[in-house]
Amino acid sequence: MNYPEFKQPLNYGQVGTDILAWWKQNGIFEKSVSTREGQPTFVFYEGPPSANGAPGIHHVMARTVKDIFCRYQTLLGKQVHRKGGWDTHGLPIELQVEKELGITKEDIGKKISIEEYNQRCRETVMRFKQQWDDLTEKMGYWVDLDDPYITFEPEYIESCWALLKKLYDKGLLYKGYTIQPYSPAAGTGLSSHELNQPGTYRDVKDTTVVAQFKVKRDEKSEKLFAGADEAVETFILAWTTTPWTLPANTGLAVGKNIPYVLVRTFNPYTYAPIRVVLAKALVSKYFTEKGATAAFEEYVNSDHKVLPWRTEGEFTGADLVGIRYERLFGQEAGFPAFEGEENAFRVIPGDFVTTEDGTGIVHISPTFGADDFRAAQLAGVPALLVADDEGKLGPIVDRTGRYVPQMGEFGGRWVKNYDGHDESAADYRTLDVDISIRLKERGRAFKVEKYEHTYPHCWRTDKPVLYYPLDSWFIKTTAVKDRLIELNKTINWQPESTGTGRFGNWLENLVDWNLSRSRYWGTPLPIWRTQDGTEEICIGSVEQLKAEIDKAVAAEIMTHNPIKVSGSLSLVSSSQEGEDQQPATRNQKLDLHRPYVDDIFLVSPSGQPMYREPDLIDVWFDSGAMPYAQWHYPIENEGQFRKNFPADFIAEGVDQTRGWFFTLHALAVMLEDSVAYKNVMANGLVLDKNGNKMSKRLGNAIDPFTTIQQYGPDATRWYMIANAQPWDNLKFDLNGITEVQRRFFGTLFNTYSFYALYANLDGFQAREFDRVPYAELSELDRWILSKLQSLIQEVRGYYDGYDPTKAARAIQDFVTDQLSNWHVRLSRRRFWKGELTQDKKAAYETLQECLVVISQLMAPIAPFFAEWLYQNMMGENDELGMMNAELTAQKPQFSSHNSSFITRAESVHLTLLVQADEARIDKALEERMELAQRISSLTHSLRKKSGLKVRQPLQRILVPVFNDTTREQVGKVEDLICAEVNVKHVEFLDDTSGVLVKSVKPNFKRLGQQYGAKLKAVGARIQQMSAEEISQLEKTGQLAVEIDGEAYTLAPDDVEIRTQDLPGWLVATDGPLTVALDVTLTDELRQEGVARELVNRLQNLRKDSGLEVQDKVRVTLQQQPELEAAVQSFGSYIREEVQALALDFAPEISGGSVLEFDEFSVPVLLNVATA
RNA sequence: GGGCUUGUAGCUCAGGUGGUUAGAGCGCUACACUGAUAAUGUAGAGGUCCCUGGUUCGAGUCCAGGCAGGCCCA
Q1: Residue A957: beta bridge partners?
Q2: Where on this chain does ATP bind (predicted)?
Q3: Which residue, A204, A362, A495, A1161, has fewest beta-carbon neighbours within 10 Å?
Q4: Could you tell me if A209 and A269 lie in one domain?
């Protein structure tokens, strides 16, 4: 067998294409799962992408991360199923369809039927599936594309229903309300994107009030009353631009860390003496400098232009929390009582409170503000709700924008001008104005003024929008909050901070999960209710629905039962219908979407008709339900589900923290009292090279297809993983891929090519059981094998710890710095010289082992190139590896797998990852090789300084050593150093020689611990140490010194002694290491130098003449005394190097070339020797 | 506005538990090397370690407060 040889440069894109074809042809992905049958599983969940847009380069990033760990676990012998999936519901799809049809939500049901509309959504959502599948394959993401779960399929929806029913039965599903933008004029809620239409936010002038809320005196508020005049009432000031919400006030919010002051002053309208609380930073907004000194006594009888005031106390928001106050519009004034009133009218914390405007205290009406609602809910403050004629609770404003009749003197008033009143008419007074007047009269308004601000308006009616409570279905996640938090602590988050921080905080501030969406394309809420809401049913399966419809038909509420399917849906039956059917057309008989489900009416136990609650559910429920719904569980396949729950690993973008990561977690905790995943990686964004977000609009988006084609999938993946840790944002720069390609893959390719070239020449083949025994290997070989074992340990550790970046960097450093640039470079002549000796065989075997192990270690990150390398190295050679055929056929013995042998398999991805053979790790050897590298580097540096090129041999270098260990260590690598830097000997200089000039450096770390503040003086003294003192410290192990009149004893550890100079020598130092170079040139050395130059020039000539490495030649040089002397001494060396059978001199040479070096100019004749 | 996160050489990034002289690769300059050669070696230029305070004998590192970018949420 020959090792395949390739021309440079390798076409990495082609490698990807070729390997991909080979994988497909041989079903390698399938085998990577099937050969692990019966082994422990590693469960991975695919977060479903949406195929309604083209995939971008960031998807390559996210999917590379997923792929890496699945492949790694497979290499460990585990079975990793990867069921793909598609997220198919949701607003983005609806918006896209509307854009394409040129319609709005309003038109649905009018210009286009819901049926047609949903059909369009169904067609649109998978439009880019081909592209996605294509990218998936080309980037080497191994996921099962043939049997994905699809969220719009009836089985999937049915599973969601079953899960919802489980929650319903646990009492975790309830109907409530949320605050949403609402247009009373249009009678409809507005989505946030409708609110973001241009022109919706307009400047309006509204009447605003700073209202006074009277503090109730009790233990909590006592601090506001300390030493105060009993008769003077104390108020909290709060500003609002919507005075009509004041009658619905139930709380006041403060910022916990904001400073507040208590100010004594007067009510500017009634002149009553009062004390008020407001933010310290806003005092100047309401009080003048003059007022600070104005006399209180004179105010009442003055012109009231200057309001006197004095600060009487200062508090933080936290001090104020819990204080109670009197209701502004209470029952005594004819306003209704409400449920939970005893918990209302309290000061609560609000993280949205600022001191930018108003009073730094925010009036809270939970029915008319989203912040208000949330803060009130967290603090247990109720909303003010009143019952209508049917006893149904609602806010004080009805859906048309009027106060309900119970609102005393204001009952029936419009809160904004929704009835088209002429605003310029003399009798026109807004509700805001009337409320303000009433407050003024009662001494409860501190300031009333017109104020211009921006306010959102309905894009259709141009009327102001209200923030209004709208019906919603919720999952009571707060009921399991503690369990959510507890179980989250058992999840391994990568990076950890996302789990404790972003996710942890989110759980701490959890509110109930709002499931409702007023849309068309999504999973319908399976709840039917009677008109009055007193009876309802939650449907958990198609079978149940069918049975309920039968009842309705019997009760003559329905005419017939539209569900024809017998029994419940089954995934098995549907997929058996026909392999070639597209998912979109499967199960066309049954569609659980709108409008079909809306046309189903059921009958309640009391005989009332029940209608489906019109909402769809949040699409995040769809994706959070995938651990169950992908198997059609709980309808069927319990076993499948159990085997694949919870996941060992998931990975998505950090933006999924409150999305998929949360819904998976929430559902798992509520349904299974378990985590949904044990390890999770939240990866960052892919930005352009300048750190800007990529977007098609800016034209800085990178096309993943052209990138992969041009640079190959491996370099692309490697770059993304090696450049930044996945959870950091990646600044994507194509130059970076080029660099990875050149530096890492190029070097690895060169290393392989080098191996292949010579191994083929020698006809060498590695045989696992015919190797040079480890004990007989050279230092160099044992060193790189030791490094290799260390690398295996290290890389496994990084993969195990979900840190692929460090794994990639470790592999990269090993390949470029250790393997290529040291081991191979120093071994070069071992390969191209002479017969297949034991040393040469060892060189091949060592390099072979390194390359094959590298192919395994890199396989998760660069699967194509790893395969390429592995196949090239292994070829058809079945003698490699241990009992390989057996392993592939028999399935890996996971539990007993503990081999440092390389397993032979059809593909590198079917192998078992080697274990580090710790017996081969030799730290002392690694250390002394590093010494060799550093000494060589220093020597090169000295040559450079003295102008002595490496081809000129030198006699010796001197290395001062202070202990026997170093001496022994360097001694063992002397040959390597000599060869590398072209010197004859390494000599050691020990202390006793006395010629070294030494210097000391204080060891601050040690000294600091010992002397603390006196360190400076001690350090200065140490730097002044004389040569005698240094010597004494070295010899006796201590040195007594006096510093500032105090006696100290220094120990050797207190200082670091270095060689500074060696008089008369050329010296270089690197930390504690010093090298001196003997630059004396003897005649013999000069001759050898000449010989080497000659070899070099002849090699160039061979190369230029197009000779192959193995060609033999005859060389004739023109006579020249120095040359002849050199050839005299080094003839055989020269002949061997240049593969010359003869090396002769002739008086005159014509027709040849001329070799030029140093001062020489030599005519030469070079002929290929024919046998 | 809040939570999280990032900020170190022109670029991309390393810098356990604090230690005085902050590193690597790429890029740049110069020289060398040349049977792995689009590789390699040596030397050089290049730094307010985002800013301000604090703790400490000593802060890139710890604490507080800012600034700037990013994500999520309002």
Answers
A1: A986, A1077
A2: 696
A3: A1161
A4: yes
Q: What is the pLDDT of residue A257?
A: 75
A818 near A787, Cβ under 8 Å?
Answer: yes
Kindly determine whether the C-beta of residue A742 is less than 7 Å away from any atom of nucleic acid strand B: yes
Count up the domains in chain A and report the number. Answer: 4
Instruction: Please say if the pLDDT value at position A65 is more than 50.
Output: yes
SS3 A727: coil
On whether both A841 and A751 belong to a single domain, the answer is yes
- Is position A768 within any domain? yes
Active site residue A656: yes
The answer to whether the C-beta of A1019 is closer than 7 A to strand B is yes
Do A279 and A379 have their domain in common? yes
Asked if residue A417 belongs to a domain, the reply is: yes
Query: Largest Cα–Cα distance in chain A?
Result: 132
Domain's final residue, options A456, A472, A487: A456
CA-to-C1' distance for A939 and B32, Å?
Answer: 14
A1107 sits within 7 Å of strand B by its CB: yes
Q: Which tokens hold the place of A825?
A: 């470079």
Indicate whether A214 and A313 sit together in one domain.
yes
Average the pLDDT over A1037-1056 and give the result. Answer: 78
Q: What are the tens digits of pLDDT across the range A975-1006?
A: 888 888 888 888 888 766 667 777 777 777 77
Q: How far is the CA of A934 from the C1' of B42 (A)?
A: 13
A363 and A218, same structural domain? yes
Assess whether A142 carries a catalytic annotation: no
Rounded to whole angstroms, the Cα distance separating A983 from A1089 reads: 11
Alpha-carbon separation of residue A260 from A236, A250, A544, A772, A1036 (angstroms):
10, 21, 60, 83, 70
User: Does residue A477 contact residue A664 with C-beta atoms inside 8 Å?
Assistant: no
What's this model's pTM, rounded to 2 decimal places? 0.83
What contacts A928, CB < 8 A, 6 or more positions away? A969, A970, A972, A973
For the segment 329-388 of chain A, residues whose CB is within 7 A of strand B: 351-352, 354, 370-371
Q: Which nucleotide is nearest to A1012 (CA to C1')?
A: B57
Cis peptide before A713 (omega within 30 of 0): no
Which among A400, A431, A456 is the end of a domain?
Answer: A456
Banded pLDDT at A32 (limits 50, 70, 90): very high
In tens, the pLDDT along A619-638 reads 899 999 999 999 999 999 99
Q: Is residue A1091 part of a domain?
A: yes
- Is there contact between A1070 and strand B, defined as CB under 7 Å from any strand atom? no
Q: Which domain range does residue A885 map to?
A: 732-889+902-907
Shared domain for A1124 and A1044, answered yes or no, is no
Strand ranges (DSSP E) for A350-465?
A: 361-364, 386-387, 393-394, 445-456
Q: Considering only A130-134, A885-889, A1024-1028, which range has the smallest mean pLDDT?
A: A885-889
A 609-638: CB within 7 Å of strand B: none
**Highest mean pLDDT: which of A166-170, A233-237, A562-566, A587-591?**
A166-170
Burial A617-648 (b: 16+ CB within 10 A, else e): bbbbbbbbbbbbbbbbbbbbbeebbeebbbbb
Question: A606 in helix, strand or coil?
Answer: coil
Range of lowest pLDDT (A128-132, A677-681, A742-746, A1052-1056): A1052-1056
> What count of other Cβ atoms lies within 10 Å of the Cβ of residue A40?
13
Q: What is the pLDDT of residue A879?
A: 47
For residues A56 and A62, what is the distance between their CA atoms, to the nearest angstrom? 10
Work out if A1015's Cβ lies within 7 angstroms of strand B.
Answer: yes
- Known catalytic residue at A620: yes
Q: pLDDT-derived band of residue A1168, with 50, 70 and 90 as boundaries?
A: confident
Q: Which nucleotide's C1' is closest to A1004 (Cα)?
A: B19
**Which value does ipTM take for this structure?**
0.88
- Answer yes or no: do A1112 and A1045 share one domain: no
Beta-bridge partners for A1075: A1068
